[in-house]
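Dear colleague,

As promised, here are the two records you asked about, laid out in our usual form so they can be pasted straight into your sheet.

NAME FIELD: protein one
SEQUENCE, THEN STRUCTURE:
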Amino acid sequence: MRRPAGFTILEIIAVLLLMSIVAATVFGRSVTTSNFDLNSATDQLRNHLRFAQADAMKRSDAVWGIKSYGSEYWLFRGTTPDNAANQVRLPGVQYSGTGSRVSETQLKAGVSDFTVFFDRIGKPYTAYTNASANTPLASQMTITLSAGGDNRTITVTPETGLIR
């Protein structure tokens, strides 16, 4: 008498089919577009900070920086970030009008308020009037982005200006 020692092909196909349905359902509910939007917004702001730092080092005639206030952030050149004449459009941003500010709606995330200046060697400052009247970053600066109940952070390291 022959004894079966395994599963039939129909049993294996049925189990694999059920497992794939359960996996697709669980994965579809756990990954939301707000996670992708927040990761994308974090990368975009991090790259804009690096762009400001690179511009300050390439064009050593002025300090450059990024300021975030309220529901917007912007790139600026010089020591007065609120002066519209000093605000510069960021690359890779689709602006709706003539302004040069990125809104939370464009970014799809909220950003904490901050101001960071970079000098000609890429060193970060929290305030900068001129080369002798300035406030270097004393401790690590943490910038928080939030969307859909999740948060991401960007850090700027004092002295070196490393942006992570």
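NAME FIELD: protein two
SEQUENCE, THEN STRUCTURE:
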Amino acid sequence: MPLLCRSFLALCLAAPLTACGYGNGHDHDGYYDDDFDFSCGDVVEEATIDTGELLDVDAGVGAGAFVEYEAGGTYYITTSCDADNGSDCLWDLVVQPLDGAIVSAAPADLEGDDLLTFGADEQLRLVAYTGHDFDGFMVQTEPGAGLRVDVLLDNACGNRYLFWVGDGALHSGAPSNPIDLVPSAP
């Protein structure tokens, strides 16, 4: 696959923020809300995530949640924000393995007001304020396990801002929230 063009990715990330309806009572006033259902529709789509394909993104250039998968079951999930607009992005992401268990997880570049927690049914949740940096985490699953990804950005469905490489192409926006990402190879 050819290298991803930074200017193309920046253009995709700088798209204006639009929100889909969200009314299940989830409230960001408290970080400890146990309601992890971010669904923004009735259908959960499935897509391929290419094994070993990495995204080349500059921090602070645009709003995005990025998912990468490495052989052996390692997922990297990071967030960025278009911080030049004067405010941070509030990301609220929940991931859950489809065909296995979370073996381990580790935060990446989180600050004191960011939170990474485990929930029921092997769910892992990140609540992070992202500015000119990246916030994220690594999750190790059983090799080849798919990953369900739910995304909120500033209290609204964030599937439009989800990026991954699948079937040899950059996907800029998911067709559903949540979406199931299935690795091309274990």
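A couple of things worth noting about protein two: The longest strand covers residues 89-97. DSSP finds one helix and 13 strands in the chain.

Best,
R.
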